[in-house]
Fold this protein.
Amino acid sequence: MITANFIDNAKVMSKGQVTIPKDIRDILGVTSGDRITFIVENGKVQIVNAAVYAMQVFQSKMAGEAEKSGLESEEAVNDLINELRMEN
């Protein structure tokens, strides 16, 4: 069972490559071929699933944009999506 807090380590190889331990990969939700993002802040490094991070950044940048466009309900958003689909 994986706990929320634990310490693991890995060896850095000659080309700077590191194998991410399985428990860490499981927590990140990454598998072979997936991408990860390194976030460096104040001398500390976070490793995150790149797809999840990209979605979080996108959502934070888009926060409030629907309301600014007059889309104040999920129904209004769905109506716009259906309208745009009909145009294509």
Summary: The mean pLDDT is 88.
